[in-house]
Design a protein that fits this description.
heterotrimer, A alpha/beta (about 675), B mainly alpha (about 325), C mainly alpha (about 300), B: mainly alpha, C: mainly alpha, MetI-like fold, 13 helices, disordered N terminus
Chain lengths: ~675, ~325, ~300
């Protein structure tokens, strides 16, 4: 079978800066090619270049052939005929990818009408069919909605509907699930598979997530610094890795399955800037296997196996024995005894926070109340890490903000370091501010861009009158694994990982006892994330800190947390010791969540049974009666009898213990291994 | 929505009332109608001046607050008081409002339409010759104050009459020739001849403003993801630009249009004054010089109302054009 | 917290040479643009002309040459004379000086006012915000020109500083609203939240985090306000509603000149030209400054 799309020696440059340097691949009908790379690897630019969608100042060279017909240099009219009909694209960030002022149905119909002579009505009917195909409930009504009335997952589905409208031969998906929650990601990937089966199209899936590729793609192409560095069948690339960069990526991903606190292996340094590439192999400066010959010239792609090529002169020496798993779980290393320490640093009891819900940005009016946090309780003991996990809208950020504000909660009680926040004098509050520190998600945003690192680190010391900061600043830099020379720099001169280290150093300046971490690594690239996670782990052990670790990424939480609390719609669904919860989750939501997390392990990914949730997450403003999860609950829908269900509908389940340090808020909780 | 509108309207009315009161108090405190009588010969007796001023509610011997109450009571009944010459302010302003409206509406429509067209064309070919040219002209126009522009227009008009047309085509001074009595068409033509120069003066500045605004908005939209989606669907660049780009970029411009309209009611004062149009703005300037407190206050009141109505209209227009803003 | 020896030793590590300061980077970017260079050069020239120019002329604005009424430019009177016999060069430069001072002062005062009002309203929200927002709305509803016109009888001779203050009072609202909006979004930014959770007092946060991060906006806005103030001043003075005689400003000079412009163009064009060139230079410099602060806003070349 001849390939549908052949890309050969594709080069893209902006001015003198080469962004894509010699990318070649081909896809056949029905095949899925995954293109993996970190930010700045040039993968999105390469995708846009295929369809000629780059701004005019981009210089494109090389060849892109669709059914043998050349697209590079083709006229705008010719390209317009191809776009959306033979090759279509699904973009990242579905909010900005749909025109805000037109109805979703009209935008899909427009894709049909751009290529077929059909009436407005016929196109509208087709649009509704397509919305139905991508699993949007009540499609006829939903077609009349505007993009902002759709949830993120629904918008992504609408984009997929638009992409398959004309039965294309190739669908290029650019990070199609990056902005989505894991359970929604699982749904959207399923829709994509369905759409592919229906159209028989070839798919080019661009992503940074090694797990998504493992389960979805047939072949993988790894990009680094604008070039392919390894390409081959999924199994070859994952299990018989021949490029140190790929090996490094796979080693630095925290995993939701087994291994527990297997220390991650970060890749040193950061990716090179496109304009300033090193003379030889672009990965050489970060490579643990570097030899002198690496700097001589950029290595070509060597044939290392059947259909498997890698750009490394030492490919024969690259081994990743530890990646190969034989299906069986390796025994987790024994951990500290299960008994918890006696002293509590943070106690939250029955915390409630409501927001007024307003509609319209201009004609603001109150239409209801969002129960962002609806009565949650947990505690953190000294030296312990609690991972607070949840998808967007689960209320985890609201809970965190409530704790950080140190104000009297609407309902319930927050006790920080033995003091109830409802009865704090200003002096006590200042004292607690010293002992409880925070690290935020976006490292670039959490440092004042106008201050030097020295001033940033000195600020807490000055605010609490801790005297001359000079020596202390150097200590802190060393503690966070930073070069002392960083003190004179501004945040913009540091990489994302370095910025996050500065933020951690600032949080440690006042020798706190409790550190609140708000998604501290989710803005970082995989290879850098590992280093920051390792740092957090080491600091905790050495300084005896307690962490409240808020995150949406279950794998990251598993890597760091002793205990984990899973939040869903403002309530805690399940809480307990991390091993217990991950190994045998009892709440159907936890089970679905864990089963939705993709593993960077093709064999296991293919054999896994996914628990797919149906429908959209309900709005926190209008949660279902009784159990808040029941509308999406597979147990409620599939397993329970009518009488059993009535309990779920009528009574909101309390968190009840299910064994040694594990508790779940489900009437019919049953432990089940899913990963 | 209705509740919201009512609340918003109420807020505007209160704000307008406060603004008008403030304007009245400022005017009554700063202007001195008594001075109008100082230079007269023969000098009128002080008692007569007092009586005259008191009749017009302009007597500075009456406490300010008392005068204010009298004035506010009148305004509530729709009576804006009398000018220093004794004529009712309301009648005069009603006539003048028409004059101002004609000038402003024509100038604004010309200015915004040409400005939007120029801005969109400049953005579509960024850094092309038209972009550079329009940017240069806009910079120049934005640096010329109305008083200079109007005088230059008059000088240019005079020169054109002498050298290009050989007769008086572009007329200056008032909205029509005084005492002209020559049938409907000739009258209309005469009005048109008077309209050209002030409209050009008013439009030029607005063209500059609108073209810069539209250009920046278009450039924002050009980089938007949804434009890329539209092209990925198979729409041509031109079609995607017009259907998805221009439509979205026009929303803020439309609201800006409404807003500018409100401010121009008095904003055209300089143009009116220089071209001798008897509009509201021109009256305001002359009223300040004649210490005409009631006229000044009435025009301020109208100006405040116009601004507030315009901003309300801008919001409504925004809601009508942008589904994200509409209360769902 | 105890640290091991080698960690403390990190202190002794070599200090890296400081990167170029932000100010120098800005200056380089500003001067790299043709607009910036042109604007700055012309503006410098205008200042030199306004303050040093009169030294080279034997005539002062008050002098009257009774041998030359409405005379065209000549070696004796470089820019010609007015109907009164006053030297146009002397009068125009005097007006330019006054206009520049008024523009600069009014812009400074109004930008400072806008920064404080906007930052406090945005940071504290609640009643502070409502009161300030309401005051701004009120001043927006009353056109500035209107209030200035009403109050013009109060600006007697020599009282131009009062005029500057009133002018500034009516230029701050729009900027304040922008500052307020940006403060609200800055307040949500992690580095401001971090400072708050560190225990830094609010007023200190405003002065050490919020305002410095708005400085680019404020500086650019100040230049915009300079040209706005100059334009407003000249227009008002033109009609006798601003600077009052015997003080002169470009507005009064242009007003005098416009009456004789048709048969004595020099009485009008020199003043009008200087005014337009000055405002143009300020605008160009302002735009170049904005690009220097925010190179991304220019879009890809």
């Amino acid at each position: 079978m001849s390939p549908v799309l052949e890309v050969d020696g594709l080069e893209v440059a902006f001015g003198d800066v080469p962004v894509v340097r010699g990318l070649s691949y081909e896809v056949r009908a029905g095949e899925v090619l995954g293109i993996v790379g970190e930010s700045g690897a040039g993968k999105s630019v390469a995708a846009a270049a295929v369809l000629g969608l780059l701004p005019p100042e981009a210089k494109v060279a090389g060849s892109v052939r669709l059914h043998g017909r050349e697209l590079v240099g083709a006229s705008e009219r010719e390209l317009a005929r191809v776009r959306g009909r033979s090759v279509s694209m699904v973009f990242q960030d579905p909010l900005s990818a749909l025109t805000p002022v037109y109805r979703v149905g009209d935008q899909i119909a427009e894709a049909v009408r751009a290529h077929h002579r059909v009436t407005r009505e016929q196109a509208a009917v087709k649009a509704v069919d397509l919305l139905d195909l991508v699993g949007i409930p009540d499609p006829a009504r939903r077609a009349l909605a505007f993009p902002h009335e759709f949830s993120g997952g629904m918008r992504q589905r609408a984009l997929i509907a638009m992409a398959v409208a004309n039965d294309p031969d190739v669908i290029i998906c650019d990070e199609p699930t990056t902005a989505l929650d894991v359970t929604v990601q699982a749904q959207v990937l399923e829709v994509l598979k369905k759409a592919q089966r229906r159209t028989g199209a070839a798919i080019v899936l661009i992503t940074h997530d090694l797990g998504v590729v493992a389960g979805f793609a047939d072949r993988v192409l790894v990009m680094y610094a604008g070039r392919p560095v390894e390409v081959g069948d999924v199994d070859d690339v994952y299990y018989r890795t021949r490029m140190p960069y790929t090996a490094g990526l796979l080693g630095s991903v925290p995993r939701v399955d087994g291994g527990g606190r297997r220390p991650l292996v970060p890749i040193e340094g950061g990716p090179p800037e496109p304009g300033r590439l090193p003379p030889g192999c672009p990965f050489a400066p970060r490579c643990p296997m570097r030899v002198e010959a690496c700097d001589d010239r950029e290595p070509p792609l060597f044939e290392v196996g059947a259909g498997h090529r890698a750009a490394c002169i030492r490919w024969a020496d690259v081994h990743r024995a530890d990646v190969r798993r034989d299906g069986a779980e390796r025994p987790a290393p024994p951990r500290e005894p299960v008994t918890r320490r006696p002293r509590t640093v943070l106690e939250v009891e029955g915390l409630v926070k409501r927001y007024p819900l307003t509609r319209g940005t201009l004609f603001r009016r109150r239409t209801g109340t969002v129960h962002a946090v609806a009565g949650i309780s947990f505690d953190i003991r000294e030296g312990e890490t609690l991972g607070l996990v949840g998808e967007s809208g689960s209320g985890k950020t609201t809970a965190l903000t409530q704790i950080l504000e140190l104000a009297r909660p609407e309902e319930g009680r927050i006790v920080v370091l033995g003091r109830d926040t409802a009865r704090l004098t200003p002096a006590q509050r200042a004292a607690i501010r010293r002992d409880m520190q925070v690290v935020f998600q976006d490292p670039a945003a959490s440092l004042d861009p106008r201050m030097t690192v020295h001033d940033i680190l000195a600020e807490p010391l000055r605010a609490h009158r801790r005297g001359a900061p000079e020596g202390r600043v150097a200590e802190l830099l060393a503690l966070a694994g930073l070069d002392p020379a960083c003190a004179a720099r501004h945040p913009r001169e540091l990489s994302g990982g370095q910025c996050q280290r500065v933020a951690i150093a600032r949080a440690l300046a006042l020798e706190p006892r409790l550190l609140v971490l708000d998604e501290p690594v989710s803005a970082l690239d995989t290879s850098i994330r590992a280093g920051v996670l390792n740092l957090l782990g080491a600091l905790k052990d050495r300084l005896g800190l307690s962490y409240l670790f808020v995150a949406h990424d279950l794998a990251v939480v598993r890597h760091l947390a002793d205990r984990v609390a899973v939040m869903q719609l403002g309530r805690i669904a399940e809480i307990g010791r991390a091993e217990a919860v991950y190994a045998s989750p009892a709440h159907p939501y936890t089970q679905a969540l864990l089963s939705a997390v993709p593993l960077p392990d093709p064999v296991r990914e293919r054999s896994r049974e996914r628990i797919l949730l149906d429908g959209e997450p309900p709005s926190p403003a209008d949660p279902p009666s009784g159990c808040r999860f029941r509308t999406r609950c597979p147990t409620f829908r599939g397993v329970l009898t009518a009488e059993e269900r009535s309990l779920c509908v009528e009574t909101e389940p309390e968190v009840r213990p299910l064994g040694e340090d594990q508790a779940a808020a489900c009437h019919y909780a049953e432990k089940l291994a899913v990963v | 929505m209705a509740g919201f509108l009512a609340r918003r309207l109420l807020g505007s009315v209160v704000l307008a009332a406060v603004a008008a009161s403030l304007a009245y108090l400022l005017a009554a405190a700063a202007l001195d109608p008594r001075a109008n009588y100082a230079g007269r010969t023969p000098q009128p007796p002080p008692a007569a001046v007092d009586a005259q001023l008191a009749a017009l509610n302009l007597n500075d011997r009456t406490p300010l607050f008392e005068r204010y109450l009298t004035w506010a009571g009148g305004v509530l009944r729709g009576d804006f008081g009398r000018s220093v010459t004794g004529s009712p302010v309301g009648d005069d302003l009603r006539r003048r409002a028409g004059v101002t409206l004609r000038l402003v509406l024509l100038g604004l429509v010309c200015g915004s339409v040409l400005g939007v067209a120029a801005g969109a064309a400049a953005a579509a070919r960024q850094y092309g010759w038209f972009d550079r040219l329009s940017a240069g002209l806009a910079y120049l126009l934005l640096a010329i104050p109305v008083v200079v522009l109007a005088n230059v227009a008059i000088l240019g008009g005079t020169w054109a009459n002498d050298h290009l047309f050989g007769r008086r085509v572009l007329l200056v001074g008032g909205e029509r020739s005084a005492g002209l009595d020559a049938g409907l068409w000739a009258g209309l033509l005469d009005r048109l001849q008077h309209l050209i120069l002030p409209t050009v003066t008013l439009s030029l500045g607005l063209i500059a403003v609108f073209s810069r605004y539209q250009r920046n908005l278009m450039l924002d939209v050009l980089g938007a993801d949804y434009l890329r989606t539209a092209r990925a669907k198979g729409l041509s660049r031109r079609r995607a630009l017009v259907r998805h780009g221009l439509r979205t970029a026009l929303i803020p411009v439309a609201t800006y249009f409404a807003f500018v309209f409100g401010t121009l009611l008095t904003g055209a004062a300089f143009t009116e004054k220089i071209f001798g149009w008897h509009g509201l703005g021109e009256r305001l300037i002359s009223a300040v010089f004649t210490n005409d407190v009631n006229t000044v206050a009435a025009i301020s009141c109208l100006a405040a109302l116009a601004v507030l109505c315009a901003s309300l209209a801008a919001d409504l227009l925004h809601a009508a054009l942008d589904p994200r803003v509409r209360a769902g | 917290m105890t640290l091991s020896e080698e960690e403390v030793a990190g202190e002794l590590g070599p200090a890296m040479a400081a990167p170029p300061s932000r100010g120098r980077v800005l200056a380089r970017r500003f001067l790299a643009s043709r607009q910036g260079r042109a604007g700055a050069a012309v503006l410098a020239l205008m200042f030199a002309l306004a303050f040093a120019g009169p030294l080279f002329s034997p005539w002062s604005p008050a002098d009257k040459d009774f041998t030359a009424f409405l005379a065209p430019p000549s070696p004796r009177h470089w820019f010609g004379t007015l109907q009164t016999g006053a030297d146009v060069y002397a009068v125009t430069l005097c007006g330019l000086r006054r206009s520049l001072i008024v523009g600069l002062l009014a812009a400074l005062v109004s930008t400072a006012l806008a920064a404080l009002a906007g930052a406090f309203a945005g940071y504290f929200g609640g009643w502070t915000d409502r009161v300030l927002g309401w005051a701004a709305d009120l001043l927006l509803a009353l056109p500035a020109f209107l209030v200035l016109a009403i109050m013009s009888p109060l600006f007697g001779a020599g009282q131009w500083p009062l005029f500057v203050i009133v002018l500034a009072l009516f230029l701050w609202m729009v900027t304040a609203k922008i500052v307020r909006g940006m403060t609200i979004s800055l307040r949500q930014r992690e580095f401001v939240r971090a400072a708050r959770y560190l225990g830094v007092p609010p007023v200190k946060i405003i002065f050490s985090h919020v305002l410095p991060n708005l400085s680019s906006l404020l500086i650019v806005d100040a230049t915009v306000n300079v040209s706005a103030a100059i334009l407003a001043e000249t227009s008002l003075s033109y009609f006798g509603l601003g600077i009052q005689p015997p003080d002169v400003s470009l507005g009064t000079v242009i007003a005098d000149g416009s009456r004789t412009a048709i048969y004595a163009p020099w009485t009008f064009w020199f003043a009008a030209g200087l005014l337009v060139v000055t405002v143009l230079a300020v605008n160009l410099a302002g735009d170049a400054l904005r690009d220097a602060f925010d190179p991304a806003a220019k879009g890809p070349r």
